[in-house]
Amino acid sequence: MRVRDLNKVELVKQKAIELLVSDGFEGFTMNKLAKACKLSVATLYIYYEDKDDLILKIGIEEVQRMVAIMLEDFDPELPFAEGLRQQWKNRAKCMIENPLSAQMIEQLRNSTYQDKMFENFKKIFGLPLGKFMQNAVDRGEINAIPLEVYWCVAFAPLYSLIRFHNDGQSLAGSAFVLTDKMIWDTFELVLKALKKINQYGNGL
């Protein structure tokens, strides 16, 4: 059995992500990938059984890598405001520094690869975030709401801003660059929307 060349493996991975984003799953072929990597098609089959095996393995590796970034310095036991801030910090870093991987993962989420790709996702990512939300509810920091509603309020604004940033274009079509001030001003609005209001009308 031939030894895997780690430099070639990384090259194949990066070129595969680029092609999957630009050409989609239907347009992606092993021949195109080999040409982009300046390798023979036979070399690709040293590392992967076929196209589906390649997409799944690279996809799973990228999901695990991105999740690790998103969970850096995050603890489900953190107070709600502090924990949510850490999540925003991690997610912004992850999505801005890895735009192609983020796009590929979103494509996989809406593909026939979804079930195999995300079967372990709930354990390594969903469980700590679910515990964080439940802890905040138990401490009376936020109201109990469906997870889907929580996600839309907590993270959709950040993802929309990052999408504008990665596209380099605002809704009006002008140039757009996301700044730290924009991120944290938006965060404060989200925090205000989620935090439970006490009897005096103040956030807890």
From TrEMBL:
Alphabetically ordered keywords of this record: DNA-binding
Location of the DNA-binding region in this protein: 29-48
Keyword hit for NAD: no
InterPro entries in UniProt: Homeodomain-like_sf, HTH-type_Tx_Regulator, HTH_TetR
Residue ranges the record marks as coiled coil: none
UniProt-recorded Gene Ontology molecular function terms: DNA binding
Residue ranges annotated for the HTH tetR-type domain, each copy included: 6-66
Domain of life assignment: Bacteria
Name the record gives this protein: TetR/AcrR family transcriptional regulator
PROSITE patterns in the cross-refs: HTH_TETR_2 (PS50977)
Tagged with keyword DNA-binding: yes
